[in-house]
Structure formats: structure tokens, C-alpha cells
Design goal:
heterotrimer; A alpha/beta (about 500); B alpha+beta (about 130); C alpha/beta (about 475); B: about 20% helix; C: about 475 residues; alpha/beta; seven-stranded mixed sheet; three-stranded antiparallel sheet; 14 strands
Chain lengths: ~500, ~130, ~475
């Protein structure tokens, strides 16, 4: 970032001035609210800022420039698949026929969207090898909850309500155990084997009549394919339990491994990872869930159905009593799903396989470039991401992974995911994705190697980083000890609202 | 070297015995590992704790850790100062940063805890 | 692959560096028996053809009708500032602000969102966003159980049916959810039955964690929120208000009538209907519940130089740190939609928001008069803001015939609330500032026509 770069901004509350703005909405007739009883009316108007449009625009454009984004540079945030977000998708989601359609629109005037959703369900079922897909969950974590609630319903329907344990490896995403708890299950955490993969014997020892499910991320959060997965799935089913696949890392295995075919009973997709829908500064996403035969009856309602005459409709309320119900209002984050649909059609089957091929090739190439300088705790072919560690560098220089990550900012890169998975000391999880060029990968590796050199020569340069960002490292302890979670506008600073 | 008048657990709690009662906190080593402590959740007075039962939670900026009762007893006091000033646990872990006082139900359990030498050896081993 | 950078030379160079001849070798660790044979999907589609396909699908939806459909999702004027800001890459192609030094834009925008919504709902703590109004309500219900260590929640039937179903799904039979009936006749018909609530709260040995009611309720009516809150608090329960944010420009906010938690759908704040999402789940609470609220929170702090800055805070509540003991499993949220709501509120301002609410109320009154004249009187008599239910004979058929005449006549209540016989002939209709006098005239005219036709086909007294 240059010296003429973005600057910190006042809040909109400080920018606003009583009397600014207006002119957007016609004034309502006098007495429009007379029928509202006094006791139901607002007495003190909300102290919202008053701004004119140029100030609003300048505020948000200036703020935006304080952000790092995929469209501004390389964003190798492991586990998050920060690939390019195609612009056609943004255009498509804004087509008035998609954007302005009310979610309670009768089926006969919503045929275009219903067809798109139905086709997308089919494509995701094919990609995952699952029998059917629900598009309802709003994000991956809600997809997990959907899957685990279906598993709960499955065991109850079989009279096995005593199954109250969910097994997860210690390298799992935090959402897995959090989901299990939300659905009323106990989490049993299984230590990973020495090679970073699942410990088959430990899982077998923990499986039993209390086990409801295992939740496995494959490839794992270390970016490694779980080579013992076949044996694990056999053991899980032999124990009467079901297998959940966390699909966060699907970008590595498109066209190479279909979880449903391999024996997983249920999985979620993160469309904002694999299928390029933008991350939006934290969301929205969408978390479709695919199921095999066992869980088919329990899919959330409503499903999208296709009639023999080729028309589409939503399931009616109560039409399928075995359903676990709904997880949210309406059918899902449809606007996000339009983007995912466009991405899948743009690639087709061959293109999706190429996505994974290139993502895996890029990750292995980058790992190869970094191996002489950083520890690579699990040095075998990785999938779409890999873990490097600054453990040796820290012992030698005192410089930590956190410092290296912050120093990367000065070199113009977004840092990788750091200190996750929790099982690796001083770990950084690096995911280049398939949309970064070999020149970018080379330059990024050079930057990391240069920083490793700085750790020896001028460690304070690294531990004091970043030096060029809009702010320096933050006082997070203060933020948590004395939380300041809202601006408190000066009361009385606003003009009274005219009736 | 940790204070020699205290007893310790493998989970990095300390105990200061005082007749029929005991004061409990976490060690400087534990506070250092957690980093800047921002929140401490403590039990209500009157709660009866079994030995090794979780009795609270300590949160730092980026970590969270359960607190386990080193000895069985009834909680007679919890350190209210930590509500406003959780940083006392970092700054003064063996004194102002104490967490709870319990009335011992099985004073003999104190003998099973580590002494200062044994605890020093534990943290030296990492 | 349409968006990839690699030439065959690039791939060859990377493979050579790895000492490989084929990318297939990087997948050798997948057991042979588990390898996928093929991906049976259509071939890649060039952008031009794909654009035509998408345009065609969008055109199969009908969005040209005069619409009086609300029922939780409302058409409003969204100033062009909203979408133009949202289309800036720095917002929509960033992710969760894990690195605050290069995410001050997103972090400050979330802090401002929290502050704006705190003003609207008059509560101190606002989460950075949840999936939608239904999921936010479910999280609110779970919050009441955690905070009170009780496991029974009462929800008014005046809360949107999708929200009730969602809470039921989240509870999954582990926690008890009971519905408070609505009053069926008299001046208060269509609002929460306070006597029934009192009875439910008084059941011995079944303490209630939370009471949930909506303002306005699903039928558009104004609820006696202060009275519901008092009953809840007297029984030691928390009070959750389900709110519609535009209405809060003119209606008393949850903080003013003692609600502990507010949940609601933020879609009306500048967000397009999009057939269901992405929307914006609003979740807010009093300071006393700050440790129970799930989802991200952004706070103000300083950097090492003492410069004011923003950061995600109280992170140890969240799933990535607390894992199975987290308040919720939520990770990805609806940050971009929270930004949309903020830009909307900043652009439209406090007076503009009040105008939106009041103009909708005025148009709704015109709609009420026109429909009554056309033969569809209101079902309930209590006050409403901009949405109300009308009675027409054979509502479902009338609704369909009006579609043919270019009118989307609201929601068939028998579809949404099949268990409530008092709504069997009901249509739920709404007006907003976008509703024109011409549209109201079209609706009333077409309705009169359809009802007259029905009269001819099925003379009065004939069995239907």
C-alpha cells in the first residue's frame, strides 16, 4: 500500500449532520399514522446519522479501500478456498427475474428459479454421488446442523434414541463439535494418527451402540486425503452409526472422489468455497446438503419437485411427515445458488475436474517451493492445501507464525490461516486455489522465504509487522475486557422528526 | 521457581490451604500460556464441587480453558474483582488473581497434590 | 477451464518441479476402489451461451405483476447507492476479517451496523448478523434456555409460521416449544391471547425460559408487547420480540417495552426479495445477555500506537475456539447484507425511514378501503401498520384468477396457516411506499370482477 493510500475514516455517526440528506422518499400524507395507538408508537426517534448521498458514497468507498480482497490480491487463506468470483455470476443474480421474485410467489410464476434450483440439486447430487440434495441451509454450519438433525431423526425412527455420541477427529473444524452439541449430542474427540490421518484403531475403539455418527473432513483440514476412509466407513456402518462428510475441502476432489459412492451417508457443500460464490466479508454463503438412501425421508421441507409434465413446484406444508422440518424461512439463499449454478454450468463436468487438478497441482508446487525453508509436518502429496510450520524458525529466532503472517501483509499478501488445525505447532494452512498463476505462486514463495531470512537478520522487523497497513497490531485484550460494541450518538443531536 | 507454600495440579491450578478452607487459582505458567486473560467465569457461592470437577472457565483473547477443582469442597467465596479486572490473573496470579475459596470436604486430598518441586519439574518438561 | 490462468507450459513446469509426469499422480493416494469414474454433467458452456440460458430462466419468472405480497418479505425502494457499494470488490470478495490490520473497512462497517441497529431496536448488543429472521429467532429461543437454564419456550402463533417451524426444528424435541394461541374474535382478534399466556406461564413445575411474540404479528396486527413482556418477566422468563426493522421508525422499539432480546428479518432494509435470500438475520440483546449472544461481535479498540481501530471481539464464545461448548455453530454469516442494511439506513436517513413506514401505512389504508368496496373486508378489527388480512369467498381460487389479471393478491392464508379455520378464507395483503394508486385500483377492479364472475357461476345460497 502506497503513502497516498487509504486512510482511516470517521464513523457515519461522526460524519452525519442534522438536516443533511433526504429527497429519496415522497412525504406521506398528514395523519398517515393516526390509527396507530399512542402506546404502540415510538417516542424517541432512533438517532440515525443524517447524510447526503455524496458523503455516504465517499464513506463506504473509502472504507472499502481499507480491505484486502480476492480482487485486490492473493488470498491463500487455508480452508476457505478464496478463488476468483466470476463477474457473470454477479450479473446473473441481479437479473430482475431472479432478484425481484418474492419467495411466496406461487409456483406457476416462479418456474425459472424452480427449474434452476432443481437442476442445481441434480448437479450437486452427481458431483457428490448422493441420492438427493437440499438447498435450504444458509451456510456450511447450518448444513452440518441439518445433517446431524437428520441423523438424529434416523436413529429415533429405528428406536435407537440412545445413540447420543458424535465422533470427530481432533483436526476437525470447530463447527463439527459445536453442531453436535447444538443437536443434543456429546462430542468424542479422537486423536489423529502420527501421519496426520484418522486413527482407525482409535475410532474402532470408540465406536459402539452409543455412536450416532462420525464427522470427517476429507481431504482433512491438513489437506491430506484420508487413505483409511474406506475401512473407517465400513466400521462406522458395522456399528450401526452413520458417516457425515464435512465438504469444506471439496475443491480438491471434484471428479476424483464422490463421497456418496464411497459410503458417506450425508455431506454439506460450501458453495462460497467450491463453487465460487463470493465470501462477502464473512457471508452470505449457502450450505446445500446431500444425502444417501438412509436419510432421504428426513430431508428438510420444502423440496423442489418436478412433475411429469415438466413443471416444478415446492412441497406443500406437511406433505412429507418424516421431514425434520425447516431450518430457516423459504427455500434457501437463492441469490447465492444462482451464482453457484452459473459456475457449475460454465465449467461442466470436465471443467470441474480441471478445477481440482489445478488446485492440487498449485498447492503441491507451492509446498515444494517452501519445503527447504519451512517445516512441512506431513510431507506427502497434499490436496488443495497444505500445512507449513515455523516451529524451527521460532526455536531459532523467536519469531512466531503470527509474526510471519503479519509481515506478509507488508509484502502485499493476505496471510494464510494460522494456528489451525490446532494439532500443528506454529502451523499455517496455505491454500492457493486454481485461479492463481504460477507467477503469483513463485512471488509468494519468494516473499515467505525472504521473511524467513528477516527472522534471522532483523527479527524486530518481523515481530513489529505490519508496518504499511492502515493500522498496526490491535489491542485485542482491551477490546474484550471493556467491550465497546456500539457507537453512542449524543442524545438530542438529531432534529425532531416532522410528522 | 513457583511459590513453595502452595500445592499444584497437573492442570496448572494452585491451592493455598488455610485450616478448613483453601484458596484456588491458576499458576503463572498457565496464565502465560493462555495469554491476555479477558474473562473468568466462576461458580456461585454454595456450590459443592467434587475433586476434578470443572468449576469455571477462563478465556483469553484466542483461547478458552476449563478450570478443575483440585480438591472437593463447598464454594464459600469467589473473587468478584476478576469480573471487572480479569487481567489480575496475568499480573498477580498467586495473590490478587485468586479465583475461589472452598471449605474442604476431604482435607486429605491436599496430600495427593504436587508440591512446588514436582510442579516445577512438570512445567520444565513442557 | 474458464477462469484458470494455467497454460499447458505452466502445468508442465509445475509438474517438472515436482518430478511428476501427470497430475493423476497427485491423486494416487485415493484408494482405487473409491475413485470416481466420471462426472456426468453437461459440457462447459461459453459465457455468451450461459448468459442467454440464465436470461431465459429469469424470464420464466413473472415479476411484472402488481404485487401486494409481503408476509415477511417486503418490496421497498432500494437507493442505487446500496447495490453500487455492494458491487465494490473490496467488500464482496473479502472474507471474515480475521486479519484486522487489512480489514478495517469490513470491521468498521460491522461496528456501524451494530450501532445503527442498536439505535433502531433500542438494545445495546447487536450481533454481526445471522442467516435470516427465522434462524435469528431460533438462536434467540436457544439463548433464553441457556441464560435461564430452563428448557421450555412459549411462542405466539402471531409469529411467522416459518419462524415457528424453524425454532421447532432447532429444538428437535430436546427443548419444549409450545404455541400461545391467538384471540379468535372481538376487537383483539388476531393478537396473542394474554389469558392463555398467563395459564401457560403458571403451569406448576414447568418454568418457562422465554416468551416470543412479533410486532407487528404475522397478520399485520399490533400486539400488546408491554403486557406480554410483563407477564413473561413476572414468571422469570425472558422476552423475545420479533421485529420488522422499517416499522421501528414509528413503532415503539423492543428496548422501550422491556424486551430482553430482539430478533427479526433485515430484508426490508434495501435487500431484494431474491426468492428467499440471502437476507439478514437481526439479533440483539441487552448488555446483561452479552455473553449468551451467538455470532460475531465487532468492538472498538486501539492499535499499538493508540489509533482508534476495530476488531472482532469476545471470540472465545465462538465455535472455532470453544468447539463443543460454543454458544452456536455459526461461522459464515450474512456480512454483505448487513453492509447493505447500513448503506440503506445511511442513505435514506432517519426521516426517510419514517417516511417509508408512514407512506406504507397510508397506502395500506387506501388499499383497505378499496378492497372493502370491492367485496373483501378485513378479517380483524385491531390496528395494523401496512399489512392486513381480508376475507374473500374461495380465497385460493380468487388468488389464482387475479394472477391471470396481472395482480399478485398477497398470500393465501390457508396455505400458510392450514390449522387455523378463522383464516380459511383469508388473503394477507400489504402495501409499501412502492404501491401506487394505479396498482390499488387494478387490484380492486380485478377483484370486483372476479367476485362478480364467481357470483354468476355459483349463485348465492348454492353449496360450495
Amino acid at each position: 500500500m502506497s503513502v497516498t493510500g487509504p486512510r482511516l475514516q470517521p464513523t457515519i455517526f461522526e460524519r452525519g449532520r442534522p438536516g443533511r440528506g433526504g429527497g429519496k422518499i415522497p412525504h406521506p400524507p398528514k395523519g398517515s399514522l393516526d390509527r396507530i395507538p399512542m402506546e404502540a408508537r415510538r417516542v424517541v426517534p432512533p438517532a440515525l446519522p443524517e447524510m447526503n448521498e455524496p458523503d455516504v458514497v465517499r464513506h463506504y468507498v473509502n472504507l472499502s479501500q481499507l480491505n484486502y480482497a480476492v480482487d485486490t490480491g492473493f488470498y491463500p487463506l487455508g480452508s476457505c478456498t478464496m478463488k476468483f468470483n466470476p463477474k457473470l455470476n454477479e450479473w446473473a443474480a441481479r437479473l430482475p427475474g431472479f432478484a425481484n421474485l418474492h419467495p411466496f410467489a406461487p409456483d406457476e410464476i416462479a418456474q425459472g428459479t424452480l427449474q434452476l434450483l432443481w437442476e442445481l440439486e441434480g448437479a450437486l447430487a452427481e458431483i457428490s454421488g448422493m441420492r438427493a440434495v437440499t438447498l435450504q441451509p444458509a451456510a456450511g454450519a447450518q448444513g452440518e446442523l441439518t445433517g446431524i438433525l437428520m441423523i438424529r431423526a434416523y436413529h429415533r425412527a429405528r428406536g435407537e434414541a440412545e445413540r447420543d455420541e458424535v465422533l470427530v477427529p481432533d483436526s476437525s473444524h470447530g463447527t463439527n463439535p459445536a453442531t453436535a452439541s447444538m443437536a443434543g449430542f456429546k462430542t468424542i474427540t479422537i486423536r489423529s494418527a502420527a501421519d496426520g490421518g484418522i486413527d482407525l484403531d482409535a475410532f474402532k475403539a470408540a465406536l459402539g451402540p452409543r455412536t450416532a455418527a462420525v464427522m470427517i473432513t476429507n481431504p482433512s483440514t491438513l489437506g491430506l486425503f484420508e487413505t483409511r476412509i474406506g475401512d473407517l466407513l465400513d466400521a462406522v456402518h458395522a456399528a450401526g452409526a452413520l458417516a457425515y462428510m464435512d465438504g469444506a475441502n471439496l475443491n480438491a476432489i471434484l471428479g476424483r472422489f464422490k463421497p456418496g459412492e464411497a459410503g458417506f451417508d450425508v455431506m454439506h457443500f460450501n458453495v462460497h468455497k467450491t463453487f465460487s460464490t463470493p465470501h462477502g466479508g464473512g457471508g452470505p454463503g449457502a450450505g446445500p446438503v446431500g444425502v444417501g438412501e438412509a436419510l432421504l425421508p428426513y430431508l428438510p421441507a420444502p423440496r423442489v419437485l418436478r412433475a411429469d409434465d415438466g413443471t416444478f413446484r415446492l412441497e406443500r406444508s406437511g406433505e412429507r411427515p418424516t421431514s425434520i422440518g425447516r431450518l430457516r424461512s423459504f427455500v434457501g439463499n437463492t441469490g447465492v445458488l444462482v451464482r453457484a449454478y452459473a459456475y457449475i454450468r460454465a465449467h461442466g463436468g470436465s471443467g470441474l475436474r480441471e478445477v481440482s487438478d489445478d488446485a492440487v497441482l498449485a498447492a503441491n508446487y507451492l509446498k515444494h517451493l517452501l519445503a527447504p525453508t519451512f517445516d512441512i509436518p506431513y510431507d506427502r502429496a497434499c490436496k488443495h492445501e497444505f500445512v507449513a510450520s515455523a516451529s524451527t524458525i521460532k526455536k531459532r529466532t523467536g519469531v512466531r507464525t503470527l509474526d510471519i503472517a503479519k509481515r506478509l501483509i507488508d509484502y502485499g499478501y493476505h496471510p494464510p490461516t494460522i494456528y489451525f488445525p490446532l494439532t500443528v505447532d506454529e502451523g499455517m494452512l496455505i491454500e492457493p486455489t486454481e485461479t492463481e498463476s504460477v507467477e503469483t505462486l513463485d512471488a509468494f514463495a519468494e516473499a515467505l522465504i525472504a521473511i524467513a531470512g528477516e527472522a534471522d537478520a532483523t527479527p524486530e522487523l518481523v515481530t513489529g509487522a505490519p508496518h504499511t497497513a492502515p493500522v498496526r497490531r490491535l489491542d485485542e485484550a482491551r477490546a474484550a475486557r471493556q467491550p465497546d460494541l456500539r457507537w453512542r450518538p449524543m442524545t438530542g443531536a438529531q432534529t425532531p422528526c416532522p410528522d | 521457581m513457583v511459590p513453595t507454600d502452595l500445592r499444584y495440579t497437573k492442570d496448572h491450578e494452585w491451592v493455598r490451604a488455610d485450616g478448613a478452607e483453601a484458596t484456588i487459582g491458576i499458576t503463572a505458567y498457565a496464565a502465560g500460556q493462555l495469554g491476555d486473560i479477558v474473562f473468568v467465569e466462576l461458580p456461585d457461592v454454595g456450590r459443592v464441587l467434587e475433586q476434578s470437577a470443572p468449576f469455571g472457565v477462563v478465556e483469553s483473547v484466542k483461547a478458552v480453558s476449563d478450570l478443575f477443582a483440585p480438591v472437593a469442597g463447598e464454594v464459600v467465596q469467589a473473587n468478584a474483582a476478576l469480573g471487572q479486572s480479569p487481567e489480575l490473573v496475568n499480573g498477580d496470579p498467586y495473590d490478587a488473581g485468586w479465583m475461589i475459596r472452598v471449605r474442604l470436604s476431604e482435607p486429605g486430598q491436599l496430600d495427593d497434590l504436587l508440591d512446588a518441586d514436582a510442579y516445577d519439574a512438570l512445567i520444565a518438561a513442557g | 477451464m474458464p477462469y484458470g490462468p494455467h497454460t499447458s507450459d505452466d502445468r508442465a513446469r509445475m509438474l517438472a518441479a515436482l518430478g511428476l509426469t501427470s497430475v493423476d499422480q497427485l491423486f494416487d493416494d485415493i484408494p482405487v476402489a473409491l475413485r470416481a469414474s466420471h462426472l456426468d454433467l453437461p459440457p462447459p458452456e461459453p459465457e455468451l451461451e450461459l448468459a442467454a440460458r440464465l436470461t431465459g430462466l429469469a424470464a420464466r419468472n413473472r415479476t411484472d405483476l402488481a404485487s401486494f405480497l409481503g408476509a415477511g418479505v417486503y418490496r421497498h425502494w432500494s437507493p442505487p447507492t446500496v447495490d453500487q457499494i455492494l458491487l465494490r470488490s473490496e467488500w464482496y470478495t473479502a472474507y471474515t476479517p480475521y486479519q484486522p490490520e487489512i480489514s478495517q473497512g469490513t470491521l468498521q462497517s460491522i461496528y456501524e451496523y451494530e450501532s445503527l441497529l442498536a439505535e433502531l431496536v433500542d438494545l445495546d448488543v447487536v450481533s454481526a448478523s445471522h442467516y435470516d429472521g427465522a434462524a435469528a429467532t431460533a438462536e434467540a429461543a436457544l439463548m433464553t434456555c441457556r441464560a435461564t437454564r430452563r428448557d421450555r419456550v412459549l411462542i405466539s402463533r402471531g409469529v411467522h409460521p416459518h419462524y415457528r417451524e424453524t425454532v421447532r426444528t432447532y429444538f428437535a424435541g430436546r427443548l419444549a416449544l409450545e404455541e400461545i394461541p391467538l384471540i379468535t374474535d372481538g376487537d383483539s382478534a388476531g393478537t396473542t391471547d394474554l389469558a392463555a399466556l398467563e395459564r401457560l406461564l403458571a403451569e406448576p413445575d414447568r418454568p418457562v425460559a422465554g416468551v416470543i411474540a412479533a410486532q407487528p404479528d404475522f397478520l399485520g396486527l399490533l400486539e400488546p408487547m408491554p403486557a406480554i413482556g410483563q407477564l413473561a418477566h413476572a414468571a422469570g422468563a425472558l422476552f423475545v420480540a420479533v421485529i420488522e426493522p422499517v416499522s421501528l421508525a414509528v413503532l415503539a422499539p423492543p428496548g422501550a417495552y422491556g424486551a430482553d432480546i430482539a430478533a427479526g428479518e433485515g430484508q426490508p432494509l434495501g435487500i431484494a426479495p431474491q426468492y428467499g435470500g440471502p437476507y439478514l438475520g437481526i439479533l440483539a440483546s441487552t448488555d446483561a445477555l452479552v455473553r449468551q449472544i451467538p455470532g460475531r461481535l465487532v468492538g472498538m479498540t486501539t492499535d499499538l500506537d493508540g489509533t482508534r481501530a476495530f476488531v472482532m471481539t469476545m471470540r472465545a464464545r465462538e465455535q472455532d475456539i470453544r468447539r463443543d461448548k460454543a454458544a452456536s455453530n455459526i461461522c459464515t454469516n450474512q456480512a454483505l447484507l448487513a453492509l447493505a442494511a447500513s448503506v440503506y439506513l445511511a442513505t435514506i436517513g432517519p426521516h426517510g425511514l419514517r417516511d417509508v413506514a408512514a407512506l406504507g401505512a397510508a397506502r395500506a389504508a387506501e388499499l383497505e378501503a378499496a378492497l372493502a368496496l370491492a367485496g373483501a373486508p378485513r378479517i380483524h378489527s385491531g390496528p395494523y401498520l401496512n399489512e392486513f388480512a381480508v376475507r374473500v369467498p374461495d380465497a385460493r381460487a380468487v388468488h389464482r384468477r387475479l394472477l391471470d389479471r396481472g395482480v399478485l393478491a398477497g398470500l393465501v392464508l390457508a396455505d400458510a396457516e392450514p390449522d387455523d379455520p378463522s383464516l380459511a378464507d383469508g388473503l394477507l395483503v400489504c402495501a409499501t411506499e412502492l404501491t401506487t394508486a394505479d396498482e390499488i385500483a387494478r387490484f380492486a377492479g380485478a377483484l370486483a370482477e372476479v367476485l362478480a364472475l364467481a357470483e354468476v357461476l355459483a349463485p348465492a345460497g348454492a353449496a360450495r
